[in-house]
Amino acid sequence: MINTNEGIALKDALLAISPLIKSLVDTFVTPKLIEFKERNKNIKENTFLPTEENFTEYYHRTFKKLIVVNTLVFNNSQRLLSDIFIPLTLSSHSKENLSTKVNGFPDKISDEFGNILITDTAGMGKSTLMKKVFIDILHRNLGIPIFIELRRLSKNKTLLGEIQEQLNSINKDFNSDLLLELLAEGGFIIILDGYDEITLSDRDKVTKDLQEFISKSSNNRFFITSRPEKALTSFGNFHEFKIEPLNKKEAFELLRKYDNQGTVSSLLIKKLQEKELDNIKEFLTNPLLVSLLFTAFEHKQAIPFKKYLFYRQVYDANFESHDLTKGDSYVHNKYSNLEIDDFHRVLRYLGFTCFKLQKIEFGKDELLKLISQGKTFCVGLNFKESDFLQDILRTVPLFTQDGNYYRWAHKSLQEYFAAQFIYLDSKDKQKTILERISNNANIEKFINILDLYYDMDYRTFRNIIEYNLLNDYEKHINSLYKNFNNEIPVDSIIQRKELMFTFDSILFRVNETDENVRFHNKNFSKMLDDYKKINGLNASGFSGVLKAAPFSQNIFSLHYQGKQTSLIHLLYKKNNNIVKDTLKSIERDISLKNITIIKNAYKILKVDDAIDNPLNNKEIFDDVNHFIASTRILPFTMDTKNALEALSVIRKSLKSENKEDFLIDGI
C-alpha cells in the first residue's frame, strides 16, 4: 500500500521513465537485435528471440518494482526509494585510499575494474544501492541493465533461465543458446543481488553456473552483492568493495528522511546527542539499524541499547500500529485473532525453520505448510493458516509478496526470530543447536544470528560457544613452539601463536609486482591449487590483500581463513576482551636487510613452528609477525592473557552450575 501523495509521485515517476526507457531501447537494444539477426539469417522463423517489446516491458515492470521500497519500519506502507536513499561510500578491499561516494551507477570504479563485488554485513544497504544503480542506468542511458535476485537460482534454475524468465513477457521460451550468444556479445550491465541468499544446498551448483555464465559473457559488466562469504573468493576477476559505515551526519540525514524532518526525527536526534547515549553510536553506522531506531523511538519514545530490542520494538510497533486517520483508539484487527506474544511464538518457529532451510522466499503453498507446522508446534493456539498469512502480509507486514513469491521483509528480521526461537523455545536442544551453528563450516552465514543471540543470552553464549572457542585456543597455544630455545623473546612467541590461530598463512615470491597477479597468473593458480590439495583445504577461503613484504624479492602473503575466524570477528565487534586489535599489539618499524628467504618463485613457505623454517629465524621473527598482521584484511587476534583468564572463570562457573543443588538449593 502507498499513500496518496506518494501514489501521485509514483505515477509521475512512471510517466517520466517511459521516454527514457524508449531512448535506452532505441539506443542499445534495437541496434543489437538487428545486428544479431542479420548475422544469424539462418534462424528459423518459429525460433523465439527477445524483442524490443520484451525489453521495454521488462524495464517498465522492473522500474515500477524497484522505485518503491517495502520498508520494515513503516507498517504496511511503501516509500519511494528516492525519498529515503542517501549516497553510500564504497571503499576497496585491496587498494588503500580508494573510495567513492555512490548515488547511482558508479562510473569511475566500473570503468576501471569492470566487475564489482560489494560485500558487507546485514543492513548496510547493498540491495538498496543496487536498485539505485539499475534506476540510474535507465535515467542516464548507460547500457542494457538486468537485475537478478540470486535467491531465485537453484540446482534447477540457472542464471540464464532466470534472465529468460525475466525478459519473457509471454508464455514462450527463448532459444537459450541464442539468448546466451546475444548476452555474450556485451553491452549488458548485469546486477546479481544477494549471493548469500542462495540456498546452501544449492550453493556449489549455482556458483559453478554463475562462474560459467560470467566467463562466457565476459564482455559485460557485472555487479555481485553479498554478505561476507568464503565462497566469494572463487570470483577472482571481481574487484571487491565494502560499504563504509555511516557517519553521524549521514545517520541524522537518514533519520530526517523518515518523517520529512518532522517531530519524531528532531526529538530522536536531540536525544542521540546526549552524552549518556554515547554507546548507541555503533547502531548509527548501519542504515537498517538507523531505520529500526527510528521506528522503535516513534513507538515508545525510548531508545533500545541492544540490537535484538530494536527488532522487538519494531515488531511491537507493527503489531500494535494505530491508524491515525481513524483516531488513536483504532487498532488493526488481526485476521488470526492471535495476541501479540502468541503471534510472536509462531513467527519464532517460522524464523527458525527458514533458518534451517536457508531460505527467505517461498511459494504460497510452501509458506502455508510452514505456518501449519508452526501451529502444531505452538501447542494451544488455534487459527487458520490463511488468516496468519494475511496478517504477516497486511496487519503485521513482516512479509512481502512479489508475484507468486512470499518473502521476509528483510533477512535480518528472519534471523531475529530464529535467534529468539533458540533462546526461548529450543529447551534441551539449545546447546546442540548453538554448537552446530558455531562449528558449521559455513559459520559466516549464521553470524548475524549469533550476533543477536550474544545480546539476548550472553551467559549461555559464553558457557557454550565462547567456552569451546577458548578450549580450542588453549590447546592451540600449548601445542606450538615447544622445542624453541630462549633466544626468541616469550612475547614474540605468544604473538606468533596468536596470529596462527584459525589462519593458515603462507608467503611466496612472484616474478611480477602486479598486485592482481592472483587473477592473471597461471603459475599462481597452480601453486594455490597444489597447496589446497596437499593440505586438504576447500576450493575457497584464502583472504587478504596480496602485499609485497618489506624485505626483498617480491614476497607476498595470503591467509586461509578458518571457520572460527568469523566468530572471533563477532567477539571483536562486541568489544569482548578475549580478542584484541592485531596491529596495535604489534606496532614496530620493519628494518630488514636484503634477506632472500624464498629463492624460487611460486614456492610456498608456510608459517609454522618448524625449527628449520626460515620464518622462525630470530633475526626476522618479529618482522614476520608484523608482516603477517599487516597483510590481513581482518585486524584482530586472540588476546592470550585475557583469553586464559576468561577460560578459568567459565570453568569455575560451570563447575558451580553443574552441582545438583544449584537451582533448588534454598527452595
What does the main sheet amount to? 7 strands, mixed
N- to C-terminal distance: 55 Å
- Kindly report the CATH topology of the largest domain: Rossmann fold
Global structural class: alpha+beta
> Would you report the number of β strands?
18
Q: What shape does the CA trace take?
A: globular
Produce the secondary structure layout.
Layout: H1 4-39, H2 52-66, E1 68-70, E2 78-80, H3 81-84, E3 88-92, E4 99-102, H4 107-113, E5 116-119, H5 126-140, E6 144-149, H6 159-167, H7 176-184, E7 188-193, H8 203-216, E8 221-226, E9 239-243, H9 248-258, H10 263-272, H11 287-300, H12 307-319, H13 340-357, E10 361-363, H14 364-377, H15 385-395, E11 399-402, E12 405-408, H16 411-424, H17 430-439, H18 447-456, H19 458-479, H20 490-500, E13 503-509, H21 517-520, H22 522-535, E14 542-543, E15 555-561, H23 565-573, E16 579-581, H24 582-585, E17 605-606, H25 621-630, E18 636-638, H26 640-657
Parallel strand pairs: 5-8, 5-9, 6-7, 7-8
Antiparallel strand pairs: 1-2, 3-4, 3-9, 10-12, 11-12, 13-15, 13-17, 14-15, 16-18
Helix pairs in contact: 1-2, 9-10, 9-11, 11-12, 13-14, 13-16, 14-15, 16-18, 17-19, 18-19, 19-26, 20-25
